[in-house]
Amino acid sequence: MKKIFIMCAAIAVIMSTSSCTKLNVPVESQYVQSNFPTTDADYTALLGTIYANLSSSYAVPYWRMQDMSTDEAILPARDGNFDDGGQYRQLHYHSWTFDHPNVIGVWQWGFGGINTCNRIISVINASSSTAAKKASSVAEVRAMRALYLYFMMDLYGNVPIITDFPVTTQPTNQPRAKVYDFIESELKAVLPLLPAKSSNAATNVGQYGRPTKGMVFALLAKMYLNSGVYTGTNRYQETVTMCDSVQTNTNYFLDARYRDIFLPTNGPGVNETIFAVPYDQQIPGNQFTRFGFFYYLVQAYGFNVGLSIAMSTTPEFYNRFNIPGDDRSKTWLAGPQFYPDGNGGFTNQPVYYPAPNATKQINIIPTLTLTGLKPMDLGNDVVTSQSEGVRSIKYYPDINIIQATRLNSNDVPVFRLADIYLMKAEAILRGAAPTTINGDAQTPLTLVNKLRTRAHADAATSIDLDGLLDERARELSWEAWRRNDLIRYGLFEKEYPLPVAGGKTDDLKMNTDPTRRLYPIPSTELKTNPNLKQNPGY
Amino acid sequence: MEKHYRSIFRLWQRSGKTICAFVLMFVASSVAFAQQRTIKGTVTDETNLPLPGVVVTVKSTGKATSTTANGIYQVVVSGPDDVIKFTFLGSLPKEVTVGDKKVVNVTMVTDTKQLKDVVVIGYGTASRKDVTGAITSVKADEFNQGVLTTPAELLQGKVAGLNITKSGDPNKPPATVLRGPSTLRDGAAIQPFYVIDGVPGASIDLLAPADIESIDVLKDASSTAIYGSRAANGVIIVTTRRAKAGQTRLTYSAYGAVENVSKNIDVLTGDELRKYLTDNGVPKLSTADDDGSNTNWQKLAERTGYSQNHNLSYGGAGTNSEYGASVNYMKNNGILKNTSLERTIYKGYINQRFFNDRLKLGITLTNSVTKNNDIFQAQVLPGILFYLPTVGPFNADGTYKENYTRTGSGPLNPLSLINNNFIKTENNKTLINGFASVDILNGLKFTVSASTQKEQNNVNTYSTSQSGIYVNAGGVAVRSAYTNTSNVLEAYFNYDRVFGKHSLKLLGGYSYQQDRNNDGFGVQTQGFSNDALTYNFLALSNPTQLSQIIFNPNYISTLRQISFYARAQYQFSDKYLLQGSIREDGSSAFGVNHRHGYFPAASAGWKITNEDFMKSVPVISDLKLRAGYGVSGNSLGFDAFTAQLIYGVPPGGGKFLSNGNIVNPIGPVRNPNPDLKWESTATTNIGLDFGILNNRITGSVDYYIKKTSDLITTLQVSTTQYFYQYLTANVGKMKNTGIEVVINAIPVKSQAFTWRTSLNVSHNKNVVESLSQGNLALPYIQTAQLGGKGQSGNFSQIIQPGYALGTFDLWHYMGKNANGVSTFQKADGSVVATQPLTTDQFIKYDAQPKLIYGWSNSFFYKGFDLNFLVRGVYGNKILNGTLASLNNPADAKLQNIPRFTLGESFKDINAYLVSDRFLESGSYLRLDNATLGYTIKPHIQAIKSLRFYASGNNIFIITKYRGVDPEVNIGGLTPGIDNRDFYPKTRTFSLGMTASF
């Protein structure tokens, strides 16, 4: 009996000891607040989230919003395939809603990036690093935050300015001009603390894909050139100043071959890149080959994975590539197809369709003729419908592509020297005074001809604003600036209707309401944040 | 009494009070010395075997003894009017008036009714007539028979309100939904909570169906609340077979079964497809797509499945100890090639009583080894329907024929998929459970039970160099090995007392559970010189890129749950019953502010038949009214990190360039939610149990209202406020109301022939009441992405306040236009013959059945018994996504089409679009099980009984559903969807026998 009571007592004691009532369990295999970040490598990895996030959506969803809403890129359905809920035709016809997957996803991407930056700033400030190291790290993060916010301001206009984390009250929209001012002041504030491109290759490797003085100048140039759109006040002369600030650093210069800028092997070795988003088989986000290449050519280009058969450019856009000798025209695949020579050109060996058309040379038809049976649909016949649409090999296919991921390793430039030349040329054409830089008296014509010469294209004899827009199209095709350019030129609403088989007309028409120059605040954000107001027209 | 005295005597002896006790005992036993004489006898069971351990009580003196190992007893009676009472657990008690007999031999008869009347209620048992909650008990003789691998399958159709759906896949456990869905989560969150022989949360893989004695399903919260936060989906308590006191038993049972596919989808043959294409002006396909074959891919993938099961169990129980062991071997070959389930279970237990039965110690050891072979079902199941019948499986050189350039829904050779990609899983589980129970004082008992369950799970997959999934990869191997450990400690006091007309039962206890899961690793690599070693020697792989070596991102998750609970049961005058319980649960899964939850319950019962006024209504033999209210929680399916801020590689797995190196970024991947709290379900249950005509007809009616609040889901949040776009939070309320009716009757009962029948019908109505809480307000949640041509990203179901879970939100089909093209209604009311927009969807119907029913019958004639079960559901809808995507005339050059499509215009370019046209009735009635058995009871000592039976499962079905089978999963978040992944339903015939020695 006694023993039993002793046992009961013992059990009661065990039960009341802390180990049996404590709910905290050891964390063994996750980084949580108590064990992260602690080392320098932790902080590097933490900063990495800013860049990994950037690459995750820049070259597909963000790019689609900037280019597929224009004549530069189109993703027609093929007998219902690739209709994907209508998201691509909604971009084409400007009929997107606040439910559009890109409208939702890119907002989350951008503000996710901004909140990541804010959180990291607080983590850095709380760390035990030296004051100088903290200051330079914070400057880097603020510059990236400004870039994200610029993307958001460009797409959605009146977006919140968020500088703290966590956010105690739900943020409200700010007028676009105010967001513009904030970005400008941030960029100016961090400029002195950022590194400049050097002639040292190792230093450039370290800076590659990260903010530099050059990136800030280029972004400010972009802001000032579009200042009229963003704020109503033109700042063309300051555009020129910023373009010159980039050029003052002679470590930026045009590369000899246009093609090399976009190869899968591109990187810090490209001299004209000011800021690029690095991609790799392990840094996902670039899928230009998956969506924009022609499937039946894969073996001729030395790889073997299944691709989409959908994205191309429009005939209107392709027709601008009409200058004799222009290397930039070779970034497009149109007409009869031959094996590539591995050096930007082609052999005489034709590429054939698979059976049953094995004797037929692949022929890419620039015209996109709708069947009229389904919305923005070309049909799915191999030699006719599937072969319609000029494909791009600007981001040249990466032979390391694998079926599971279908990624390209080509880094995608955001700012490069050619854009600086064209921005300066445009600013001068719009009224700014020409300037001399590094002893070079630059006029719009000399600037344009620098690019023409590099591309082995016939030089221009004169240049006007319309010609400059076409030059931008040729030089910067599929580099995610077309929407920005068209809005600045007031041409974003220009229709380019698609022909329909049998002489009918397309049922769908572009929504030409200028309110479409801004994307709507996504439904998901309005639902979760009552302080956000929808943009006009939605 | 005598025993009791003896024990006191012995104790006192030890404490030196021998004389005193001796005197006391002498006085006590000498009171009724008058006409005493000795009676002897033997007690046997129905098979003439001597029964040891039968308690023999003399009524006049109250003295009791028990029979010896040979069933012999000897008592002293006070005269010819004295009565001897024989009692034995599980048998009908017997009383014999002595008269002038000197020898009284007795045969005890097994009381099947009494066995049925014991109900396991959680930390104790109760008599069925004293139960105040909604509990259904199913005993072994009522179980379904056939090739059944989980306890849930034994219950299919037997329990009102318990909806079980099972596919033909041997490796997939059935989905169970009790009284309608009560969560927005999936997976473990919708599983009922299993308690096996008192071990909460034990794995059902440790159970061989043949070892199960009974299953109790606790349905309402007043019953389940004692299990607190794990009980919202109901509690299923499994009790395994044990030897009865004084018995030894040896049982061998076995069956063999043949399984065939009960229905295939009627797709075209190669010749028919060729003709169809020619008739519609499609040019002849290339030899890559048409080599003149007539391949039936479904037949090629399927086979006749053979299954076998052997169970050997033995055990015994003496006066102070019980022991037993069993071995079960089961092999179930799936009807798809290369799929199988093989399981071996070993189990042994030994319990011993000490100190005159005041201390009982026991240990049970169970080990189960399960081996699964599986194929890549996600590719194979659509493949066998969609793949062109016009091509054969092989090239002339014997390699698998593929055409990688063909697009469409089934682009890879299904036979190659089956033979070149396989998944082998070996799961080894061990459960060790020890317990001690102590009778401290009269009526006060303390029980402590500790268990450790360890699970080793090894999953290996290999895709050969010929695999169409990994072309040119040289074989892809994935190996993973994980250990999961669960430790449970339960300690509780029971106090049972009767004071006159008052009866009181008290329970108080403590429970500790710690689950540590996912301790291990997994890795993928590729590039082998040949396929001979499959995944067995990864060191010989030759990955050419770093990205071809993939480490599984699984993490160790430790979850701890600590609970205190108490229950009081009070009975007055055997008429009025009251029960109340409370449980406090703490779980590390929840936010630091809400880790503890309180789950109270109260219920009452009124045994109306025991009232005096009922004596005048003899036709009513039993009538009891029950009412209860209780709250139970749901914390199933959470891990230790659900509410915490976690840093990891952000979704997408992308790396970044850091000074020329490619490295992992590390950032938060989960928002912390310190306010995350328990999902709780409050159930009100009112029930009536009745029996008429001396309980020839019995039954019960239950009405319930089940309200779940603080529903937890992972929702999208504003990234302008949160840093990660998903937050796991409490968001709303859901309600289920329903009624369950059970009627049992014995229409015929005679010496030779008996017919028992039982019908259960239940109706449930589910509605989502709200999706907003605090500052989170969701207008709706879209679910069920079926994919399909040009429809990826489209949702087919919607969760919206005012509607049931599983409500369909689809395009509205408006028939065909003059050209035979399918037309649809747009949101503005207009009708189009083109693909509508996602904003043109309409809410229509839901997947929740209005009625679920089961009707079982048993007939006994001499040694024969015949059982059959008819069950079904009524009033639910199924979205036949399989038919929709197959129905694609224009793609008939890329994929096969069903015969159904021959009725469509070839010009119908919209035929395949998922719309309400493919929303079909899911009602069905199935003759699910019929068993004919014959039992021999040879009158020899060696064999107690022999039973042979033949059984058929899924014998026929009546349904209008056009798919393979209407029994699609109606559990989870997206119920009622048949989308190209239906494992064929099977029909099984089995032959079996049971021998008891």
Topology at a glance:
The complex is a heterodimer of chains A (538) and B (997).
Chain A: H1 2-16, H2 40-68, H3 87-92, H4 101-126, H5 131-156, H6 176-190, H7 201-207, H8 213-225, H9 227-231, H10 236-248, E1 273-277, H11 288-292, H12 315-318, E2 332-333, E3 335-336, E4 338-340, E5 346-350, E6 363-364, H13 382-386, E7 391-392, E8 412-416, H14 417-429, E9 435-437, E10 440-442, H15 444-454, H16 465-476, H17 482-489, H18 523-528
Helix pairs in contact in A: 2-4, 2-5, 4-5, 5-6, 8-10, 8-14, 10-14, 14-15, 14-16, 16-17
Chain B: H1 2-14, H2 18-29, E1 37-44, E2 55-58, E3 64-66, E4 72-77, E5 83-87, E6 94-97, E7 106-107, H3 112-116, E8 118-120, E9 125-127, E10 135-139, H4 151-155, E11 162-165, E12 175-178, E13 193-196, E14 199-200, E15 212-218, H5 221-224, E16 235-240, E17 248-261, H6 270-279, H7 297-301, E18 305-317, E19 321-333, E20 340-354, E21 359-374, H8 377-386, H9 414-420, E22 421-441, E23 444-463, E24 476-499, E25 502-526, E26 550-551, E27 557-572, E28 576-587, E29 596-607, E30 620-634, E31 646-648, E32 656-658, E33 661-663, E34 667-670, E35 679-692, E36 697-716, E37 726-749, E38 753-770, E39 772-773, E40 776-777, E41 781-785, E42 795-799, E43 807-810, E44 812-816, E45 822-825, E46 831-832, E47 842-846, E48 851-861, E49 864-874, E50 877-880, H10 881-886, E51 919-921, E52 924-936, E53 945-959, E54 977-978, E55 986-996
Parallel strand pairs in B: 1-7, 13-16, 50-54
Antiparallel strand pairs in B: 1-4, 2-3, 2-5, 5-6, 8-9, 10-15, 11-12, 13-14, 15-16, 17-18, 17-55, 18-19, 19-20, 20-21, 21-22, 22-23, 23-24, 24-25, 25-26, 25-27, 27-28, 28-29, 29-30, 30-35, 31-34, 32-33, 35-36, 36-37, 37-38, 38-48, 39-40, 41-42, 42-43, 43-47, 44-45, 45-46, 48-49, 49-52, 50-51, 52-53, ...
